[in-house]
TrEMBL record:
Keywords: DNA-binding, Transcription, Transcription regulation. The lineage of its organism: Bacteria, Bacillati, Actinomycetota, Actinomycetes, Micromonosporales. Residues 31-50 bind DNA. GO terms for molecular function: DNA-binding transcription factor activity; transcription cis-regulatory region binding. PROSITE patterns: HTH_TETR_2 (PS50977). InterPro entries: Homeodomain-like_sf, HTH-type_TetR-like_transc_reg, HTH_TetR. It comes from the Bacteria. Residues 10-68 form the HTH tetR-type domain. This is TetR/AcrR family transcriptional regulator. It comes from Micromonospora craniellae.
């Protein structure tokens, strides 16, 4: 196999994964044919990469874990106050709307072993502990609760964006304002 073939195969595989994330994020019952159409490949090509639906879903789970980890890295959780890091994380995760909407709709994806080894809460918990210590996050709010708040606000933001005529910037601004208000220490 030449480098060009490897690059072409990688691009085709990535196009199929992206199409699966987008299509299944909007309709979990979508057929493999619908995913192939969205990826602009034939169904035979899709089956060459992913013989079964379960193979495709396992690859989507791995891709999801990879993207989530990359977004977490870009958020620089160890920099600044805990609240500043949380808001950066919120902004980075907001851009994963299709992927994370799919994860919410298909909870079996996060049961994939790759999520247990690739997606870790330790950095999130350390960021919240730092926020408690530096006074930027209300110490009465435990990390698991704040993680739920983050996910619920992101979901609310994606839903609002999809059902109202607002820009991505406006929806993200609402999410960040809500999360910032929710975590702020009380007087």
């Amino acid at each position: 196999m030449t480098t060009d073939e490897s690059g072409s195969r990688a691009r085709t595989r990535q196009a199929i994964l992206q199409a699966a994330i987008e299509v299944l994020g909007h309709n979990q019952a979508a057929s493999l044919g619908e995913i192939a159409t969205a990826a602009q490949v034939g169904r035979t090509t899709l089956h060459r990469y992913f013989a079964e639906r379960s193979d495709l879903l396992a690859a989507v789970a791995a891709e999801g874990a990879r993207r989530l980890n990359e977004a977490t890295g870009r958020a620089r959780l160890a920099d600044g106050t805990g609240a500043e890091a949380l808001l950066r994380l919120c902004a980075e995760y907001f851009d994963l709307g299709d992927l994370l909407s799919l994860v919410f709709a298909e909870p079996a994806l996060v049961e994939d072993p790759v999520w247990g080894t690739e997606v870790c809460d330790d950095d999130f918990y350390a960021m919240i502990a730092r926020g408690h210590a530096d006074g930027s996050i209300d110490p009465a709010l435990p990390a698991p609760w704040l993680q739920s708040v983050l996910w619920s606000q992101l979901y609310g933001g994606w839903s609002y964006l999809a059902s109202h005529e607002v820009s991505r910037h406006e929806a993200l601004g609402l999410v960040i304002r809500t999360v910032a208000g929710a975590v702020a220490p009380r007087g």
